[in-house]
Amino acid sequence: MNEQFWWYVSRSAGITAWALAMASVLWGIALATRALGPKAKAPWLLDLHRHLGGLTVLFTGIHMGALVADNYVHFGLADLLVPFASAWKTGAVAWGIIAFWLLVGIEVTSLLMKRIPKRWWRGIHLTAYAVAVMTTIHLFTAGTDATTVALRWTTIGAGTLVVFFLLYRELGPKKAARIPAGARARAREAVAAE
Predict the structure, then answer these.
(1) Confidence of residue 127 (pLDDT cuts 50, 70, 90)
(2) Looking at residue 185, what is its pLDDT?
(3) Mean pLDDT value of segment 119-143
(4) Residue 64: which residues within 8 A CB-CB, separation 6 or more?
């Protein structure tokens, strides 16, 4: 076996985890903004978003496990789980660790979504934007593939799409305000009485 096998596994799993995280964020924004259409309610659309998130966690685990298995730079559990504990590119690795813990929080609360207040779930789920930013910083500061032209253009493209969808969410068409029938009738009566 090639002595750099685990290094290659770590790099490829890390890039794959980043791409899956960005895809999950983009798909989530597309669902939330109704960019997929006003009737985009098929269960598979939400399932795809959930599967992308689950795959992100899986490939992040492979990335971290391969770092432990690699013998070029020693990574122990503390180096992978505690921000600023790693002696190798301390700040760059810390971005990845913080993003990992936020990702775990997002995934756990998504699995418990029916058992926790929606406000908590939503607040934690919105940290996905921070995960996207932190993993991109981690990719370019810790990753050895940061100078790859294809990777740079991919991050620019993904970042542009996220910004576009966020702007679309804020400036695009809003959901029609739902006013209960009783309140609508009272409002009509009040206008008629004037």
Answers:
(1) very high
(2) 61
(3) 92
(4) 75, 80, 100
Whether 88 and 144 have beta carbons less than 8 Å apart is answered as: no
Query: DSSP readout, 69-132?
Result: H-SSS---HHHHHSTT--SSSHHHHHHHHHHHHHHHHHHHHHHTGGGS-HHHHHHHHTTHHHHH
Enumerate the domain spans of the chain: 5-193
For the range 158-166, what are the long-range contacts, defined as Cβ-Cβ under 8 Å and sequence gap of 24 or more?
158/19, 158/22, 158/26, 161/26, 162/22, 162/25, 162/26, 162/29, 162/129, 162/132, 165/26, 165/29, 165/30, 165/33, 165/35, 166/29
H-helix or E-strand spanning residue 185: helix 181-193
145 phi, psi to nearest 5 deg:
-100, 10
pTM for the whole structure: 0.81
